[in-house]
Each structure stands twice: as structure tokens, then as C-alpha cells.
Amino acid sequence: MQTAGDIACQPYPLFGGAMSTVIPHSATDISELREIPDNQEVFAHTHTDQSLIVELVEYQGQVSDQDSVRYHFEDIAGSNKALEPGAFGVTSIVALPHSELSLSECSSAWMLTGTQCVSKFNEEVKNVVTLHLGLFRLPQFSTDILITFNDPQSISPDSSSASAAGTHREPWTVQDFERLMKTLTLHNPGLFG
Hints:
Blueprint: E1 11-14, E2 19-22, E3 27-29, E4 40-45, E5 51-58, H1 65-79, E6 88-95, E7 108-118, E8 127-138, E9 143-154, H2 162-165, H3 174-183, E10 185-186
Antiparallel strand pairs: 1-2, 2-10, 3-4, 4-5, 5-9, 6-7, 7-8, 8-9
GO molecular function: guanyl-nucleotide exchange factor activity; small GTPase binding; sodium channel regulator activity; transmembrane transporter binding
InterPro entries: Mog1
GO biological process, one term: protein import into nucleus
């Protein structure tokens, strides 16, 4: 099985070739292992418990651009059952300059870094995960493109992820995530219906 990371630094096709981006090294395309929703592309690091998700979500017109990435972060916290006080927090939010992006169709782009205490597969124990979110706003397509980089920081010994905790060989970095965001390119606007 070819991993997406085998073609590092080459654009990797997403959503049937409608988009592409540079995926970090040691990435496995999860759609080759199990069914993934049509609005997502999911990659997992071969040796760590890190993952990347590129997701097409509904444009949230009621949320201002500067609050939009926080809105999605809190939505993910709700899905992760991490909304109780102290279970999630935002470290930084920055606007990304258009001049650094390949996705010229976006009206604005944002990057958020935060943490969430989450359990995997509804387990009792929780792991501390740093989330790096990238958000591209495309109001003309009624779409937000959300990119999530899950980077576990503290894994409980009782978690099903514990076996990956000691094998952090060449983990993905924030620079890998930033390269993925900056190289995201739209080839076929028909993707958005």
C-alpha cells in the first residue's frame, strides 16, 4: 500500500483530484483502510498517533471571519466531549496572508492552536491533544475548508493510543502542517456542487 507520505513534497490529490496539497511524510490515507465521509480526507502518521483531516463544512455566515476558527474549534470540542471547564483552551489565532496561500479563492484564512482533553473511542481515560486548525472561508461556495492537525501531547497509559506513545519517530511538525495549508489548491470548483 502506498502511503501519501511516499510522495512527499509532491501535491497529493484530494476529493478525487478536485483539490491537492502537500501531505507530510509517513502519512497513510485512512480511506484505504476504512470508509471516510465524502466531505473528509483523513491521514494518520504511520508511527505516531498524529492525524490530519481536511474537511469541507458548511459556511457559517453568522460568524465573523475572526471568530470563525474559534467557532469550529469549539464545535470539535463538543464532538470530543471536551467542553467542561479546563478541558479545552485556545493558545493563539492568527490570520494567514493571502500572499502565502495557493488557495486564492478563499476570502480569508486563519490558523488556531489550542488544546483539548479527549478520550479516544469513547474510552474513560483522556489524552491531552494539541489541535492546530486551519480554516479557509469560501462564502461564494457556501463552504468552509477546515484542516485539523491532531498532535497528542500526553497519552494516558490506559488509552488505546498508549502503544503509539513511545514510537515518536519523526513526528509531524507545525511546519509540515503550515506547508499543507499553504499548498492547498483548488482544481475543480464543481466539488462544491
